[in-house]
Amino acid sequence: MFNQKPVISMKTSEAAVVILLLLTGISYGMIKLELVPHIPVLLGIMGLIVYGLLKKIKMAELEYGMIEGAKAGLGAVMIFFFIGMLVSSWIAAGTIPTLIYLAFELVTGKWFYAIVFLVTSVVGLSIGSSLTTSAVIGVAFIAVSETLGLSLAITAGAVVSGAFLGDKMSPLSDTTVLASSTVKADLFDHIKNMSWTTIPALLVSLVLFAVLSPELSSADFTKLEGLQNTLLDMNLVHWYSLIPLVVVALLAVKKMSSVLTLGAGTMAGLLVSMLVVERKDWGTLPGILFSGYVSQSGNEQLDSLLSRGGLESMFFSVTLVLLALSMGGLLFKLGVLPALLSGLAGSLKKVPVLIGSAALSAVGINFLIGEQYLSILLTGNTFAGHFQKAGLHPKNLSRVLEDAGTVINPLVPWSVCGVFLSSVLGVSTIEYVPFAFFCLLSPVLTLTAGFTGLTLTRIGRKAVA
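and the corresponding structure tokens:
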């Protein structure tokens, strides 16, 4: 998609009208009509096709644009499939049940949401993957929340906030490396510079989650103990069930590819599951990689938590991602996105306007295409020269790319991360967005830095504090 050439050129004002109509239509369909996101996005694609035909563009060109857009998501699709298999194999191996059991142990009478936020932050920082953190640790905390009758929306917001804080600051994260390398900033200088906006966002988020955390009664803990005993009775809690998690963590530290890491984690899960499942049932294990694990404990609540995973569970996410990226491909082919980016990049002489435009570009691409990598690549390449002309160090731009690009993706219902998280956590994007405090605060703080000049680094100078 990134290498596509638009077949027509248009004014920025016309492009803005097209985008406004498109986003209004998608938002109305999802929020007002409560449609699954596939339908509004598909209708948006059809509208763009009609617009292209009216502009005398050949249908073959429009089809090519959609195909090229969809190609950009094949890497994400493969990761979705591997995570689906990982989840089912880890439940069979007792990895996720053991983590749920341990998560129950972490729960105290106070600070539940704050604990969720801190734990997912540490795990995300350790392995550098927000999606893996959410799929494993996040699922465990969602199980605890559902058991205690707490808000799933706030719990999901804490999971997303922590997972993306860790992902954003981890040197093992793809987006962290991509943001720094795109603008040619040193990786660790980039991470250090992000602390100016990350630490305040972390502290404010922690306070908010602590304030929202309820007081838990002794009855709640009795309920937890009952579920812990059920997990033990199901023979799903073992120390060796954590081996697959260790395998994934080690490969992540060694910076192996996501597909290889998740594949190894899945195979480790299948091998460990042979110690958990009776020998006569070994033949059923490969099948769960497609259809998912089905729990039959007799406890309805626990069965609903543990019956998940598999390739099949990812089909909703995969189809939506491909549709959204196809729409992005059309926006490129029609020249809509290039016109918008060109308009934003023009006449950028004042630093506040420059940083605000870069942030708006990163946020906008997340909403228009739903892909965080492209929000980083397109914005970084568009604004790198302008930051240099303004005398700003490249790490200022790389911070904007993360604060307004990386952490915004999970807030978009039709984005790669938004679709995946709502599927895995069982909470819609629109429900958890108001409580994803860290993700909401990050762009605000990066804009504040731009407009006040605080923490900005000039070329050859240290940060202005």
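(Above: one complete record from the training split.) The mean pLDDT is 83.
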